[in-house]
Amino acid sequence: MEMKGEKVDLESIKNKIQDELQGVKKHVDENKDQWKSAIKSKSTEFAQEVRETAAPAGRGFFRFIGALFKVFAFFVLGIIALVLFALGTK
């Protein structure tokens, strides 16, 4: 401020800060809709990418669980068949 020939005291510093804050407020007000739409589009892109990445992993996990369930079911059915066969041969 002194280099610009302005007086340096608390009042001039206060006025300078208020002017700068008004400029920032004006800039935010002018660009908030643009920023809002940019953030919305980026979050939509990110959500889509997460869905695309998670979907194959989820399907693979459920296939694994299904295979385990089938193995367990066949094991139980096999034991039941053996017991029935053993009971039927007596």
Could you describe the 3D structure shown?
The structure is a single chain. The chain has one helix and no strands. The mean pLDDT is 87. The chain has 90 residues and is mainly α. It starts with 9 loop residues before the first helix and ends with a helix. Helix content is 88%, strand content 0%. The radius of gyration is 36 Å and the shape is rod-shaped.
Strand portion: under 5%
The gyration radius over C-alpha positions equals: 36 Å
Mean pLDDT: 87
CA-based shape = rod-shaped
Quaternary organisation of the protein chains: single chain
Number of strands: 0
Helix content: over 70%
Q: What class do helices, strands and sheet pairing give?
A: mainly alpha
Can you write the helix and strand succession as a string?
Answer: H
Largest pleated sheet: none
Low-confidence stretches: none
Question: How large is the count of helical segments?
Answer: 1
Terminal-residue CA separation: 108 Å
